[in-house]
Amino acid sequence: MSAVTQRSPTSIIEPMPTHRRTPLLLLWFSLASLCQVATGNNEFISPESIDGTTIVDAEGLIDTVTQIPELILIDSRIIADHKEGFIEGSVNLPDTETDCSSLASTVPGLASPVLFYCNGIKCGRSTRAAIIAIDCGYSNIYWFRNGMEEWQEQEYPLVQ
Predict the structure, then answer these.
(1) Residues in CB range of 74: below 8 A, 6 or more apart
(2) CB atoms < 10 A from the CB of 58, how many?
(3) What does the pLDDT read at residue 82?
(4) pLDDT, tens digit, for every residue of 15-57?
(5) Number of domains within the chain
(6) CB under 8 Å to 158, separation ≥6 — which residues?
(7) Which helix (DSSP H) or strand (DSSP E) does residue 54 occupy?
(8) CATH number of the domain residue 78 falls in
(9) Helix, strand or coil for residue 154?
(10) pLDDT per residue over 59-69, tens digit each?
């Protein structure tokens, strides 16, 4: 007869270590992309939240920039989208170019406040960039989930 290891109920819901979470998140994004192709639905919807981030809306972004002037704004969209207009003070760092090295060149330190945004909830670029930042060890991350879609709906200014 073999022994059965008993796990306490709390051990089942303990947070997953970051080094294990990254491959699972990448797998999730890959499967989501495959499902979109398989169903003919090319619509990505950002998650409601990302562990390790503080979600802000357009007004919250303005408040956060006012309260934390050292906040780094990162536009995770492709260069062509950035050229069409961006939030004043933001730096363009597309998600496809976001890694620990590019973040270290853009953000002064792991505890520095940084905010990611892209085109909105149907754009996964800021989602991916924020997850990469978390995995690189950044700990003061803000996420403008509704991104440019909400910014433009509120008729806030863009820089071109």
Answers:
(1) 90, 91, 92, 93, 98, 106, 114, 115, 116, 117, 126, 129
(2) 21
(3) 97
(4) 445 555 555 555 555 444 433 333 345 678 999 999 999 999 9
(5) 1
(6) 85, 86, 87, 88, 151, 152
(7) strand 53-55
(8) 3.40.250.10
(9) coil
(10) 999 999 999 99
> Which domain covers residue 92, as residue numbers?
45-153
- Is 10 inside a domain boundary? no
Do residues 102 and 121 make contact, with C-beta atoms less than 8 angstroms apart? no
Q: Which residues have C-beta within 8 Å of that of residue 31, sequence separation ≥ 6?
A: none
**For residue 21, what are the contacts with CB-CB under 8 A and spacing of at least 6?**
135
Residues 123-132, mean pLDDT to the nearest whole number: 97
For 92-127, letters b (16+ CB in 10 Å) and e give bbbbeebeeebbeeebeeeebbbbbbbbbbebbbbb
- Amino acid at residue number 113: P
What is the C-alpha separation between 64 and 42, in angstroms, rounded?
33
